[in-house]
Automatic annotation (TrEMBL):
It comes from the Bacteria. Coiled coil: none annotated. Keywords: ATP-binding, Nucleotide-binding, Transport. This is ABC transporter ATP-binding protein. Residues 11-247 form the ABC transporter domain. InterPro entries: AAA+_ATPase, ABC_transporter-like_ATP-bd, ABC_transporter-like_CS, ABC_transporter_ATP-bind, P-loop_NTPase. GO terms for molecular function: ATP binding; ATP hydrolysis activity. The keyword Cytoplasm does not apply. The keyword Nucleotide-binding applies. Pfam families: ABC_tran (PF00005).
Length: 276
């Protein structure tokens, strides 16, 4: 196992709760993502939040992206640990927000121009990301003419071009076939190798794929009170925070086929069944 140590927090959820009209959706969620340092390697990390369908994952994503204010609690981002503001986190939503009347190239250039004041640099970065994500051949196409995988790659490139290091993916694997899934996994891993500070946060209900890619994993679920009654609002119990890097299960070639990984995913599924 590659040795590693943690340096500073890059994302902190501090007692985040969310209610809509008195209905508690999220309850007292705390989690902290630390920048991980592997000596001799320029590598960021992937962390995951798992939650069953309808449990509040998209709401949590919008809160982490600064697009929704929680009823209680705070989200802090970056090395400075500032309160999150819209645009501080690259957010790839389930409905990728590409502009349909602009070509793929122009969509990416628009994103780059938000981060790079120098127009020539914005163009250079756009071309570099098109190349890196194997989209150069499709640069003149409009979003409607791209395949699902190409749109996914474009949406990730777009968010990387305009944001700093932290990128949040809401259900990145839903509706993808096996080949496309492999492609998206490859891109996620590639993003983490671009810069040591790059952190990809996956929020998903695909437990197997999320676990295979992550260094850290948090399970969202419901807790019971002393009498066995389910408490309202999804939360993260202390026993549902996993350091996969420490367990030797951080992503490596064929991790999904290893008996320890298979046993661990079975354990997670059992935990999930019990917290619903
Ligand atoms: N603006 C809102 N007003 C009221 N209720 C809302 C609002 N947004 C979300 N909800 C409710 O919060 C709950 C969680 O919704 P959310 O979309 O976050 O679930 P999810 O876990 O992302 O589901 P899925 O995996 O099926 O996409 C749902 O019951 C939803 O109706």
């Amino acid at each position: 196992m590659t040795p590693y140590f943690y340096k500073f927090p890059v994302l902190t959820l501090d007692s985040v709760s969310m209610e809509f009209n008195g209905e508690i959706i999220l309850r007292d969620i705390s989690a902290q993502v630390l920048d991980v340092c592997r000596p001799g390697m320029e590598q960021g990390q992937v962390v995951g939040f798992y939650g069953r369908s309808g449990l509040g994952k998209s709401v949590l994503c919008r809160i982490m992206a600064g697009l929704m204010t929680p009823s209680r609690g705070t989200v802090l981002v970056g090395q400075e640990q500032e309160a999150v503001a819209p645009g501080a986190v690259g957010f790839v939503q389930q409905q990728y927000p590409l502009f349909n009347h602009r070509t793929l190239h122009d969509n990416l250039l628009l994103a780059a121009a938000r981060k790079y004041a120098d127009a020539a640099e914005a163009r250079r970065q756009t071309d570099s990301y098109l190349e890196r994500f194997q989209l150069t051949a499709h640069r003149r196409k409009y979003p409607a003419h791209l395949s699902g995988g190409q749109r996914q790659r474009a949406a990730i490139a777009q968010q990387l071009l305009c944001s700093d290091h932290l990128i949040l993916l809401d259900e990145p694997f839903s509706g993808l076939d096996i080949a496309m899934m492999d492609e998206v996994k490859k891109i996620i891993l590639e993003v983490t190798t671009m810069d040591e500070l790059n952190t990809v946060v996956i929020v998903s209900h695909d437990i197997q794929t999320t676990t295979a890619l992550c260094d850290r994993l948090w399970l969202l679920g419901y807790e019971r009170d002393a009498s066995g009654q389910l408490l309202p609002g999804a939360t993260i119990s202390p026993e549902h925070q996993y350091n996969l890097a420490e367990m030797g299960l951080a992503w490596h070639e064929n991790v999904e086929a290893e008996p320890e990984f298979v046993r661990f995913v079975e354990h997670l599924k059992e935990e999930i069944r019990q917290s619903a």
